[in-house]
Write a structure and sequence with these properties.
Helix content: 25-40%
Radius of gyration: 27 Å
Strand content: 15-25%
Number of strands: 12
Strand order of the largest sheet: 7-2-4-5-9
Order of helices and strands: EEEEEEEEEHHHHHEHHHEE
Shape: elongated
CATH topology of the largest domain: OB fold (Dihydrolipoamide Acetyltransferase, E2P)
CATH architecture of the largest domain: Beta Barrel
Number of domains: 3
CATH class of the largest domain: Mainly Beta
Number of helices: 8
């Protein structure tokens, strides 16, 4: 048995480190060639490290959430080789949305064998499926036929993690729509990207360290006052209610929310709920 060391590979100019976001395999588990082992993230791209050969995962040299430098060893696994072979340090390939995917002609035999399995690199129509996408699809019960319907936004129409998660959420929304249409249509769930997660975390942490200030702006409402004075008597006779400035300010607030819809949101962990209704 020969040991292979998995390193954090170079991912482009300016990227010197990555965060270990998730271990996709457990210690002692069998790892197939090109199968995803670790999910990592940088400020520019989320990626996955895959196994260069088949073997048994021996140990991780870091923890989830650790910040690891490019070139640092993060995992070790054993593979069946000639015992006389000199131990080699192998940098595992990395899958990102920016890597050019080699086009491959899919034969009819491959189409038949792949139609009922997610352990394939491509769909019957030739769409490339990364190990991460296959893993998510298998876990969420997304069939190969459904993957064909996913609109890929990656290079060469490749299906990215974001594309698949969006498809799964839309599929879930359609199912929920049958039970409670009004509730589903009342908001939209947006998956946070890494930068927004960092900003949200910093904003929450800032409450512990920074003072929060409320600003007041002076506005000339002379025209509003004159209009109210002009219509207040007729309004009282017609509705048996006095007209106040409150509904005017409410209307102005609603118009502002329509002009800037991202004001009307709430945050739940790493998701943004963009409200479609304006409730006062």
């Amino acid at each position: 048995m020969a040991k292979l060391e998995i390193l954090i590979p170079a991912m482009g100019e300016g990227i010197t480190e990555a965060i270990i976001t998730k271990f996709l395999k457990k210690i002692g588990e069998s790892v197939e060639e090109d199968e995803a082992i670790i999910e990592i993230a940088t400020d520019k791209v989320d990626s996955e490290i895959t196994a260069p050969e088949s073997g048994i995962l021996e140990k991780f040299l870091c923890n989830e959430g650790d910040e690891v430098a490019v070139g640092e060893v993060v995992a070790i696994f054993n593979t069946s080789t000639d015992n006389s072979k000199i131990e080699e340090i192998i940098t595992a390939p990395i899958k990102t949305d920016k890597i050019i995917v080699e086009k491959k002609k899919v034969t009819s035999k491959e189409k038949t064998s792949s139609s009922n399995s997610l352990f394939i690199n491509r769909t019957p129509e030739g769409k490339f499926l990364s190990p991460l996408v296959r893993s998510i699809a298998n876990k969420e019960g997304v069939s190969v036929a459904e993957l064909e319907k996913v609109n890929g936004t990656g290079l060469d129409n490749r299906i990215t993690k974001s594309d698949l998660l969006t498809f799964i959420k839309q599929k879930s929304s359609v199912n929920s729509d049958k039970n409670n249409t009004s509730q589903v249509n009342s908001f939209e769930i947006i998956e946070m990207d890494r930068m927004r997660k960092l900003i949200a975390d910093h904003m929450i942490n800032s409450k512990k360290t920074s003072a929060h200030v409320t600003s007041f702006i002076e506005v000339d409402v002379t025209n509003i006052v004159q209009w109210r004075n002009k219509v207040k008597d007729s309004f009282l006779k017609m509705h048996n209610e006095k007209i106040t400035f409150t509904p005017i300010f409410i209307e102005a607030t609603v118009q502002a929310i329509r002009d800037y819809p991202m004001i009307n949101i709430s945050v739940d962990e790493n998701k943004i709920f963009l409200k479609k209704n304006i409730n006062i």
